[in-house]
Amino acid sequence: MGRKWNNIKEKKASKDANTSRIYAKFGLEIYVAAKKGEPDPESNQALKFVLERAKTYNVPRAIIDRAIEKAKGGGDDNYEELRYEGFGPNGSMVIVDALTNNVNRTAPAVRSAFTKCGGSMGVSGSVSYMFTATAVIGVEGKSVDEVLELLMEADVDVRDILEEDEAVIVYAEPHQFHAVQEAFKHAGITEFKVAEQTMLAQNYVTLTEDAQVQFDKLIDMLEDLEDVQQVYHNVEFADEE
After folding, report:
1. Domain 80-128+203-233, what fold?
2. Which of 64, 69, 120, 182 has the most crowded CB, counting CB atoms within 10 A?
């Protein structure tokens, strides 16, 4: 199960290498979340979640404040949340989540990325049935037993608790995300190694060297698209066991 956190970690490392891109994507996500509800994270759970994620990516406060202030001012931008599913090289599976104000721009761009990298778009549900929506929260400085104890004291049931890469990672149902975080905060833990709502593959595949090169190009092309917020897949990275 260690591959789960490793895939998320690899994604974080890749995005951290292009901070301007990740900051822009978070700015849009924060704006949309704040515009949909109250611009206060204490009364807007969607906004609160995005801000918790942004913190783990070290998004500057100025970008967060600017997005929230923009939402307070209203604005005519209307964004849709879209999900695309497709197949990469050697039958690898990919899910793409987007926020867009122009569907006619986004869909062709996503389809083009798949086609150029030896893949193909699938219909809704063709890939997602092989993934499980999961909340992933990770902390450092605690043992598995200590985390289990504090979650039990808070009466929070989770799927699994594992020690991975010098961190303790909690896998939970998506709706338990805030309950897990509150349990940690009640125990004095306010810094998180990871705080994600993600799609984890039920089974992972390993690609040949040539297919991996193509696949990496596909992921890079998708993540470079301005409308794409998240990309999930079922490929193990080459450095994993």
Report:
1. Alpha-Beta Plaits (3.30.70)
2. 64
